[in-house]
Specification:
The complex is a heterodimer. By secondary structure, chain A is mostly helical. Chain A is about 80% helix and about 0% strand. Classes of the chains: A mainly alpha, B mainly alpha. At the A-B interface, helix 8, helix 9, helix 10 and helix 11 of A face helix 5 and helix 6 of B.
């Protein structure tokens, strides 16, 4: 029901010309609420990236060594590689369903800023994968022998780094949204572009584990996130428009 | 400034003929310069006091690395022009540049690792330059993969152009993050170019630089002709041109 009213609001936003037209901010908020609600109704999509993250981190103690001292040394790499792959896993569906049923076309025609709406969808993706991953990372870290003092640092690093992952990933998802089997291509497009996030993220995590100052790489991660927020939505919009034509 | 020459390049027959006319002007000087550079680099230049004859691979390695970057620049700028002014000819340039750049990136990686074996004792070291070259190669593969994934030419052109422009912004960030990443772990390696080289070593390198650049431009012109013909295959001027 709530979704239907959200749609009515969107439709009236597109149709009416009077002073009652809601601002782009409120339309984007409706968009965000809708995406979150859809995700919670289809819980498997929500759980799968998390389960994937847990499985990938479990592989390393089994494959490398169960020795916690040695695991602590590779923990930053394990956490970041797993976070990168889990974030990618959910990307394939970011625009796909909305492209298939014509929703994106309606957004493009609505007269509202398409960039704002797509940014709202990307924020939803971060809230559904980036944030849970950030909350999971300290738990995975504990299993890899990471000391408790490093937990806030790991949480902050993963939370900020995944913002960039979601935004750059959205560019890849928008470029491949019309293609039938895009999983491998999407990884090939996205992974080389997000290498800086992996490097600075793993570095900050490593420093946090050694209880050294990790502010430097963390600030670089934040700078990357700011740059991505500024530029990526433009590329996402261009890519979506090309695929709608 | 008069931009007529630029606008005329948007016409496929004109572009086709111009590329054909330019090809020998690039190809012949390239052949002569590369020949001279090879003689100078492989015979006349003295062996390095530290690396012996192994350093000579740089006469192929360094120009290839430069061209793998230059072709990415051409691809990204042409893609941007194609996106902004909806110029189909620019997309044809971008499409022709990608495989050339990818080939040079591969040559750079192969020659780099061949040089690494006698010098570092290993075919592959996670040296910042080699690593960022590897990512450049993967970016090329992604670009070509995206291009070939679309059935519709126009969509392939514009979608891959968006990727090329995003890459143009990202490539320097990737490069410097890789450089900082490694310098955090170990001391900077001493590179060949940093030390002063004798004249007899530098001149062949310069010849190879210019020769390789002209060679790649001639290949670009030839690929562009094939690309334009393929894109315009149903047009009448193509039938007249190929005499079918």
């Amino acid at each position: 029901m709530a979704e239907a009213s959200a749609w009515a609001a969107l439709r009236s936003a597109a149709g009416s010309q009077g002073p009652a037209v809601p601002s782009i901010g409120s339309v984007a908020r409706l968009m965000l609420e809708r995406d979150l609600r859809l995700a919670f109704r289809k819980a498997s999509q929500l759980v799968q990236p998390m389960a994937f993250f847990v499985i990938v981190t479990t592989l390393f103690p089994l494959a490398v060594t169960p020795n916690l001292v040695q695991l602590r040394r590779i923990a930053p790499g394990v956490i970041w590689a797993a976070a990168l792959l889990s974030s990618l896993l959910a990307l394939e569906f970011l625009f796909r369903d909305d492209a298939h049923d014509g929703t994106l076309e309606q957004f493009a025609l609505s007269g509202r800023s398409l960039t704002g709406l797509l940014l709202a969808k990307t924020v939803a993706h971060w809230l559904l994968t980036g944030l849970p991953l950030a909350l999971m990372a300290p738990i995975a870290g504990a299993a890899l022998g990471v000391p408790e003092a490093a937990m806030p640092g790991i949480l902050a690093t993963v939370a900020i780094g995944t913002v960039t992952l979601s935004l750059i990933g959205a560019v890849g998802a928008a470029l491949t949204m019309g293609l039938r089997r895009s999983g491998a291509l999407l990884s090939l497009l996205t992974l080389p572009l997000v290498i800086p996030v992996l490097i600075f993220g793993a570095r900050a995590t490593q420093l946090a584990i050694r209880s050294e100052a990790y502010r430097g790489p963390l600030l670089l991660l934040a700078a990357l996130a700011v740059l991505a927020i500024t530029l990526a939505p433009l590329a996402v919009t261009a890519a979506v428009r090309i695929n709608l034509e | 400034m008069n931009w007529t020459w630029f606008h005329r390049l948007a016409s496929p027959p004109y572009l086709y003929r111009t590329a054909g006319r330019l090809t020998p002007w690039f190809a012949w000087p390239a052949a002569i310069l590369i020949f001279a550079g090879l003689i100078g680099g492989l015979w006349l230049a003295p062996p390095d006091y530290q690396q012996g004859d192994a350093y000579r691979i740089m006469y192929v390695h360094v120009p290839s690395a430069w061209l793998s970057l230059m072709m990415y620049g051409i691809m990204g700028i042409a893609g941007g022009i194609g996106l902004i002014w909806r110029m189909k000819a620019a997309h044809a340039v971008a499409a022709s540049a990608a495989p050339i750049g990818a080939s040079f990136a591969l040559v750079t990686l192969v020659t780099g690792s061949l040089w690494g074996k006698p010098m570092w004792g290993t075919y592959w070291a996670w040296d910042p330059r080699l690593t960022s070259e590897l990512f450049l190669f993967l970016l090329y593969l992604g670009y070509m993969g995206l291009r070939s994934a679309f059935e519709e030419l126009q969509r392939a052109d514009r979608a891959s152009a968006v990727l090329a422009v995003v890459g143009l912004v990202d490539v320097p960030i990737v490069h410097y993050s890789v450089v900082w990443w490694n310098s955090l772990h170990q001391g900077a390696l001493v590179f060949l170019g940093r030390r002063a080289m004798p004249f007899s070593m530098t001149v062949p390198l310069m010849l190879m630089f210019v020769g390789f650049t002209l060679f790649s431009l001639s290949v670009l012109a030839m690929r562009l002709r094939a690309e334009v013909l393929n894109r315009e295959r149903s047009a009448r001027w193509v039938r007249e041109e190929v005499g079918a």
